[in-house]
Amino acid sequence: MRSGSRELLDEIAARPEVDRVTANHDLRAVDFDSRPDRRGEAREVEPNLLFVGAPAAWALGATGTGIVVAVNDTGLDEDHPAIASHYRGCLDPPSCTVKDHDHSWWDATGTSPLDPSDANGHGTFCTGVAVGDDGGDNQIGMAPGATTIHCKVLTDGGATTDAAVFECFQWNLAPWDLAGGNPDPALAPDLVTLPWGYGGGGHAQFRDAIQALEAAGIVVVAGAGGDGPGCGTLRSPGDYREVLTVGAADRGVPYPGTIASFSSRGPSDLDPSPPYDVPDVLAPGTDIRSSLPGGAYQIWSGTAAATAHVSGLVALMWSACPALRGDVGLTGELIAQSATPLVGQPGSGCGGDYVDGPNNDWGHGTIQAENAVRLALLSCGAVFADDFETGNTSAWSTAIP
Amino acid sequence: MRGAARTLVFTVASILCAGGATVDVGPLFAGVGATVEPLVLQQLGAAGRADFFVRFAARGDLEPAAALGSKEARARFVLGELRRTAEDS
């Protein structure tokens, strides 16, 4: 209800079919640590992708082809060389001289209703981590075969409201055209990326909407937040049971790394029965090189970057096993099962199992893309020539899907 | 045209609010019927008017979507069920 009066509120609240009335909260959702690009030239496959075994997953034939990733963020520079041909609104890749933004772009902030834009950079950066690849030396994304659509939910200053968040979730379920018409569930994405969160957690107002998306077979991936290392520092909706919550791994030591000090920790008290451990997994979240508006690249750190890795991972798995597409529950289980526990790392001691996981510091561990894709292939009935099923990891590089 | 688009969007907003499990947004004031978040009352007290969300008690049954074969069929079912629930509320 826009600009409602007290009298109207009283009338609505007295009606038996109404459960509750909540405010349209304001939010400053984005904060991140950034610094300039470390070099003038590109470096083939970025080390964060090597860290989680992405090239080995690509070698299994899984690049994200046919999978649509929605990024609800600050927007997009759709002309960035690493992104242009991945944006669904580009009709003639790789040149992208012909575009159609209907059903592929929506601006819930009203900043740029007709064309994608991103004066902040956060959305362009996270999109790069998920799918970015310029066809040359800048291989910055997990799922270079996937395509993207975008809902601008955050202003260029990184702020939003509940209304904008709801609006983007609706658009995710049935993307409409630039005029707000012709909502079409056939054009819904396979997954939604939320690289931001409401600080302090406990904001449960989006659970209904996210449950609806997941009932439609759409995975929702959310960042844990950058308010660690204290316990109970998750942001919303990263503290929801329903979403796939991603914390940040620090690559300062060999795989699986350590949990980044800033990465928010559980537990979540939103839904205590039964209790659940969160985050679900970690992904690289420190010193990540990705795309910025204007054809630039820069290095940022944060759980937003980690979140985009997992979005790309879902795309890899579903392109490897189309039968898994839309199975939100099993996909999450396979990602957890294929992650590597950070054995011996107690984190902040926020609770849970610190041997096998999960726990409220590093969840099930750091994602491993090759293993996740192999589990996806197995769920599709693939047979491997090596001993993958029995855990003989020395032979995992030779697969026969 | 733009205004019309926004109107449509917010109609659908109510639809999405109608599905799923219990929402809890901080301490809530128990009124005669629905509970009202105190922030809404504060905003009304300060400005006389406020934006707020109305959450219906009825819930759509989204579980059958899981048995549908295609992603499009699932999304179409969920959208239809949420719309039906909102219209019936």
User: What is the ordering of alpha helices and beta strands of chain B?
Assistant: HEEHEEH
Mean pLDDT of chain B, to the nearest integer, reads 70
Based on the structure, what is the oligomeric state of the protein chains?
Answer: heterodimer
Order of helices and strands of chain A: EHEEEHHEEHEEHEHEEEEEEHHH
Shape field of chain B: elongated
- What kind of sheet is the major sheet of chain A? 8 strands, mixed
**Percent strand of chain A:** 15-25%
The value of Rg of chain B in angstroms is 16 Å
Number of helices of chain B: 3
Name of the level-1 CATH class of chain A = Alpha Beta
Radius of gyration of chain A: 20 Å
CATH architecture of chain A: 3-Layer(aba) Sandwich
How would you characterize the overall build of this protein?
The complex is a heterodimer of chains A (401) and B (89). By secondary structure, chain A is α/β, with parallel strands linked by helices. Chain A has one domain: 3-Layer(aba) Sandwich (Rossmann fold), CATH 3.40.50.200. Helices cover 22% and strands 16% of the residues of chain A. Chain A contains nine helices and 15 strands. Chain A has helices spanning 6-13, 47-51, 54-59, 122-131, 162-173, 207-215, 303-320, 328-338, 369-379, and strands at residues 4-5, 18-23, 26-28, 33-36, 68-73, 105-107, 147-152, 159-161, 191-194, 219-223, 244-250, 258-259, 281-284, 288-292, 296-301. In chain A, the strands form three sheets. In chain A, strands 5, 6, 7, 9, 10, 11, 12 and 13 form an eight-stranded mixed β-sheet that branches. Residues 392-401 of chain A have low confidence and may be disordered. Helix content of chain B is 49%, strand content 12%. The longest helix of chain B is centred in the last third of the chain and has 18 residues, at 71-88. In chain B, strand 1 and strand 2 form a beta hairpin. Chain B has helices at residues 2-17, 38-47, 71-88, and strands at 29-30, 35-36, 49-50, 52-56. Chain B has one domain. Chain B has a two-stranded antiparallel sheet with strand order 1-2. Chain B starts with a helix and ends with a helix. Chain B has three helices and four strands. Residues 1-31 of chain B have low confidence and may be disordered. With 89 residues, chain B is an alpha+beta fold. The interface between A and B is large, with 58 and 60 residues. Strand 2 of chain A pairs parallel with strand 2 (35-36) of chain B, so a sheet runs across the interface.
